[in-house]
TrEMBL record:
The keyword Oxidoreductase does not apply. The chain crosses the membrane at residues 21-40, 52-73, 100-122, 128-151, 163-184, 218-237. This is Multidrug ABC transporter permease. Pfam families: ABC2_membrane_4 (PF12730). It comes from Clostridium estertheticum subsp. estertheticum. Keywords: Membrane, Transmembrane, Transmembrane helix. InterPro entries: ABC-transptr_permeasesu (IPR022294). It comes from the Bacteria.
């Protein structure tokens, strides 16, 4: 545990002189302020406006996850062709976990900032609702971070970014009728669908029990997938010896 904490601190220090911390600060802050300005000048402070903002946030994150994961792993590659990660055999999984936790912490900060600033400026619903929505966005992205760390290490930043673009498109598509019956099994749909179902529960109290069961089904599938993906990724990285170009 101490070694892991040291690795995370080291990774944060490495990123301190890059644009990545600023990206996680400025993009969510700018997004929240732009939506607040737009809503305060054109809308009637409706619940639909909040739903629209959170869904846009959920749709944008797959792309951001793909891009940021690719950049972080690319910097590790540029520092010596993954030699730091590969040569520390006693703590190989620790190095992998450090990168994953770093990305999850940065993503959590961005979501908290984006939702928190918007909640302060658009206090139509209780803060508890915004908190639940923020948690839904965070846990809905965990699988994507695991996936994109793998893609970035194995195939590079281009592949991770390309998958991120496709993921955002899939996420938007899952809001249509096409996603009604398959969203449980589509990782890019989890965040946006959890938020969507929360608003359906709010707007349709008569169907509350049915919606809660639907959310619980999605949560079960998602948590199961996260556990399996995490275990497989650890096993894979422990055996990984570098890309073919380095062998």
């Amino acid at each position: 545990m101490i070694a892991l904490i040291r690795c995370i601190k080291s990774d944060f220090y490495k990123l301190g002189h890059t644009s990545i911390p600023w990206i996680h600060l400025l993009i969510p802050l700018a997004g929240a302020l732009i939506f607040l300005l737009y809503y305060h000048t054109t809308s009637k402070n409706s619940i639909t406006d909040i739903e629209g903002y959170l869904e846009v946030l959920a749709i944008a994150f797959p792309l951001l996850i793909g891009l940021i994961s690719g950049i972080v792993i690319e910097k590790e590659e540029q520092a010596g062709g993954f030699q730091v990660m590969l040569c520390t055999s006693k703590s190989k999984c620790t190095m992998y976990l450090s990168k994953l936790i770093l990305l999850l912490l940065l993503g959590t900060f961005s979501i908290a900032l984006a939702v928190g600033v918007f909640a302060l400026g658009f206090h139509v619903l209780p803060y508890l609702f915004y908190l639940k929505a923020g948690v839904a966005l965070i846990i809905g992205n965990i699988f994507l971070y695991i996936l994109h760390v793998f893609i970035s290490i194995q195939f590079g930043k281009g592949a991770s970014t390309g998958l991120g673009v496709a993921g955002s498109l899939i996420s938007a598509l899952m809001l249509t009728g096409l996603g009604d019956y398959i969203w449980y099994f589509v990782p890019w749909a989890w965040s946006v669908r959890f938020c969507h179902r929360m608003f359906e529960k709010l707007n349709s109290p008569a169907f509350s029990a049915e919606i809660v069961l639907d959310i619980q089904k999605g949560l079960f599938v998602m948590l199961f997938a996260i556990c399996i993906a995490f275990a497989i990724s650890l096993f894979w990285f422990k055996k990984w010896e570098g890309r073919k170009s380095y062998e």
